[in-house]
Design goal:
This protein has 302 residues and is α+β, with helices and mostly antiparallel strands. The chain has nine helices and 13 strands.
């Protein structure tokens, strides 16, 4: 067994026993490593100390039941492995800059620390060969578009802090808020029938430490509407990472975060560099949608 597989085994154990008392000695035994080496290896591969990681995963599990106002916050805290209301509130506020009560009264989309899939760091696939791992199926192919594709939607100026790295930062999901605004207004856009939806981060004219995020729908060339912003996907060759997840919620959170991280590794291993934008392409944005693509404008490393 590789060292990373030992750590992955304990990540699986933590998810299964998230509401139980979990001690580091038990995890070290599961991994067949000494307590000292286990903690060092865990921190290096997961990028968080063991205790901090368990706390963040418990918080991720706690967010969903908080929407049920019939449940006491204390009961949710205990069900997710926190010893008291006070301990839960302190951890929640530290991660999300709000209390559980404030989140319950004014719910927003939150970034979570995802469970890592360490296999993706140590497995390389060729173009056209699917990779299946922990509920995710992804594949890389090249696509060339001869004419630009146009989209119309809304933008937001997003602070990098609290959003990056994907799947590791905690706080309000501000690109998610841009999507929410888009979905509230997209019926006003003259969309292409059966067209795609797209989200993309790029610099734009923003202060240092921020980026622009656009969410929009595919439109015909020449469509104009001053109420919205237009974005153009340039004509060129792209490396396209298509991936599927078990459901739409997983697709737009954990799955896309994993795909973005793995794409960076994949491009580097194949001698490619990516330009400063990488659109997310949605073919079905309904709750039944389980497939999307990352379009990466890549070129050979010099």
């Amino acid at each position: 067994m590789h060292a990373w597989e030992s750590i992955q085994k304990t990540l699986d154990f933590i998810e299964t026993n998230i509401n139980e008392e979990i001690d580091i000695e038990q995890l070290a035994k599961e991994s067949a490593l000494s307590v000292f080496y286990y903690q060092r290896l865990f921190s290096r591969l997961v990028k968080k100390p063991v205790r901090e990681y368990i706390k963040l995963r418990r918080l991720a599990y706690a967010c969903k039941p908080l929407a049920d106002k019939q449940r006491r916050i204390l009961d949710i805290a205990l069900d997710c492995g926190f010893g008291s209301h006070e301990t839960f509130t302190r951890a929640f506020k530290e991660a999300y800059k709000m209390t559980p009560e404030e989140y319950r009264e004014q719910p927003v989309m939150l970034n979570q620390f995802d469970k890592p899939d360490l296999l993706l760091n140590y497995t390389m696939i060729d173009e056209g060969v699917p990779l299946i791992s922990d509920g995710l199926v992804l594949e890389f192919n090249r696509k060339t578009i001869l004419q630009p594709i146009f989209f119309m939607g809304v933008t937001g100026i997003i602070p990098i802090a609290g959003q990056m790295p994907l799947g590791e930062a905690t706080g309000v999901d501000m690109p998610g808020e841009v999507w929410e605004k888009f979905h509230q207004e997209k019926q006003l856009i003259s969309k292409v029938r059966g067209g795609r939806e797209l989200g993309v981060a790029y610099l734009g004219d923003v202060p240092e430490g921020y980026f622009t995020y656009f969410a929009g729908a595919e439109i015909a060339h020449g469509t104009e509407d001053t109420r919205f912003v237009k974005w153009e996907l340039p004509a060129r060759e792209y490396i396209v990472c298509g991936f599927e997840a078990e459901n739409f919620e997983q697709l737009v959170t954990v799955a896309v975060n994993k795909a973005v991280k793995y794409s960076g590794i994949w491009l580097e291993k194949h001698g490619l560099t990516m330009e400063a934008y990488s659109p997310e392409m949605y073919y079905d944005s309904s709750p039944e949608g389980t497939y999307m693509e990352l379009w990466m404008p890549a070129s050979e490393q010099k």
